[in-house]
Amino acid sequence: MKKIKSSLLIGICMTIMCYPQLAEAKHHSGNWLDDKGCLHVWSYDTAFFGLIKYNKTYEIFCGVTLE
């Protein structure tokens, strides 16, 4: 069992070293204005090959007008 755990850990480390762009945490965010004039902000985060995902949306304030 100890050899399986160490082999798995070595495999994960080797995969991360070979594909670091997939293993690193990524953050995407943006905002939009809906038809009621409310400003919304969103964020999307991923980590560890996309296995951990976190989405969040905020309504900042309403009554925004574009001039």
Task: Tell me what the structure shows.
Helix content is 31%, strand content 40%. The chain is built from two helices and three strands. The longest helix has 17 residues, at 2-18. Strands 1-2-3 form a three-stranded antiparallel beta sheet, with no helix packed on it. By secondary structure, the chain is of the alpha+beta class. It starts with a helix and ends in a 6-residue tail after the last strand. The model has no long low-confidence stretch (mean pLDDT 79). Strand 2 (39-47) and strand 3 (52-61) form a beta hairpin.
Described by strand count, sense and barrel closure, the largest sheet is:
3 strands, antiparallel
Strand percent estimate: 35-45%
Average residue-wise pLDDT: 79
Order of helices and strands: HHEEE
Rg is 20 Å
- Helix tally equals 2
**Cα shape:** rod-shaped
Helicity, as a percent range: 25-40%
- Catalogue the unreliable spans: none
Q: How many β-strand runs?
A: 3
Helix and strand composition category: alpha+beta
- Distance linking N and C termini: 67 Å
Read across the widest sheet, the strand sequence of neighbours is 1-2-3
List keywords for this structure.
rod-shaped, 2 helices, 67 residues, three-stranded antiparallel sheet, alpha+beta
Write the layout of secondary structure elements.
Elements: H1 2-18, H2 20-23, E1 26-33, E2 39-47, E3 52-61
Antiparallel strand pairs: 1-2, 2-3
